């Protein structure tokens, strides 16, 4: 599939800088490909920001990639083990690329939070200081680029079941 990779990556970054969470930024940058409006994409992915509901679990940018993988090749047939397995393989491949670049999928680790740091549902105010001290924009850019590369390679169309699209 031909897409403007740089435009998609820039859009994800812009969305984050406008105040959307990491997952929303990645999903909304690609949702039109799957027939979703930006508003639908933002709602669909809203709960995955901050490491899933700000619990600092799986990085929201990575969750955004995984949500897009579901839109791209998620199984929609009950009992479709082959389709489900294919989607899981794609998700694992995307995760592998993300971890290779960032060292972790875990939000708390990426933010270098101390073990046992308090968890709160209160969203942080988006200020210049917030953006300066958070590495999140790097993960968003990376997740958008990784997903764009996945689409460019046509992996969503021709990845044989059980094959890893990362292999050259």
Q: How is this structure best described in words?
A:
With 168 residues, the chain is an all-alpha fold. Helix content is 58%, strand content 0%. The protein contains 9 helices and no strands. Helix 2 (22-30) runs parallel beside helix 4 and helix 4 (60-73) runs parallel beside helix 8 (136-152). Residues 158-163 have low confidence and may be disordered.
Structure summarized in a few sentences:
With 168 residues, the protein is mainly α.
Q: β content, as a range?
A: under 5%
* SSE topology string: HHHHHHHHH
Rough outline: globular
Spans of 5+ residues with little confidence (pLDDT < 50)?
158-163
* Estimated radius of gyration: 16 Å
Number of strands: 0
State the distance separating the first and last CA atoms.
18 Å
Number of helices: 9
Roughly what percent helix? 55-70%
> Major sheet: size, sense and barrel closure?
none
Average pLDDT metric: 91
Structural class: mainly alpha
